[in-house]
């Protein structure tokens, strides 16, 4: 089934979101095939609790299997039917809520398109910056906040089915929100796991060679590991608001949202100021001993954002990216579990297309979509990705420059920090002085001058350190270069080797 899906990918429009581009690839497959037995290796399984598509949208493949049908999507759009679904939704995304409401009355097709949940999600996130109370759907959430006296129950649970409406783009959005993770996506676990190793062993075997490792038992003494469940955090944090995408939300409100929502890309609570907002949160964890050298600390209050509390429901996560400012990172799971997929710096993940300057990345719209359409390709790669499931109490080390994707397999709470040690200091300084640093550097207001500030602070705090690290790096580079005779002879057999 997966191979057929790959052959039927449709072209799409890339959508820019800040410095990241995402691309949609839709699959022409029948719903019947999707819900076949779980032991069918080529099929996909829908969650048992999944509702049918709100408006009865079917994948385009069903139209091909039913030649007597016509696509009501086209008849209801008139001359606009020639536009792709992606382009049509891009245009609708320029409209306000009133215009969408009026347009929904024009035809059944416009009704389906104007009720597409991501349109209303964008309206909520763009207009309700003070936070929101999720009402079961993004449209009802927007209407309830904008028109408090309006009964939103019909909006949240209503909507009529449209017969013979076929759209891969709209169907796949529903599919990705309701698809079970396939067992084969979870079974590969090839990360190195270590317990109780020394700092020296960590540096020698993992940080110096820039290799991932999963560390067990190094956060067993955290108060967070014992205390951080929903009830405790809601009581502790009270009315404090945390960063959730572009909005700020109280923790209780976020949990209401995460319980009710069923969407392709759930919002992720990802806050860099959590310890300043609620100091006790910062008191209940400590940096594992392996990561305590953090040279960005010389900048004091001017250092870029470096630590985050992360909370999200099953299906939430981060699509493929490289951590900011060429830093390394560690991620500790406190509750729940996370699936990790990591590629080394010289291997770009399939389906991911970074721009030449690294300022933008085109990738599938959602994490599930990447697994559906691209994960299978990695089976035949010589350089296979590093994969694992990181569970509560475990910490993963993410080396500088590694591409990584993370998806929560259940509701999860984690702490992550980015850091600079002597092992990656030169890489960070090189990154910060790139010609386009103003577009690449993140987590600080002064992107242009960060290099000079950081270098000067390092030289003041650790005189001669940069020069010594540079000399060591030069010696390593010299050792890597083959001598003339090494390059023309085969040391194993003593004969000349011709390489014309």
Automatic annotation (TrEMBL):
Cofactor section: Fe(2+)
Cellular compartments annotated: Nucleus
An annotated GO cellular component: nucleus
Domain JmjC: 276-436
SMART domains, sorted: FBOX (SM00256), JmjC (SM00558)
Keyword Nucleus part of the UniProt annotation: yes
Keyword Ubl conjugation among record annotations: no
Protein name: F-box protein
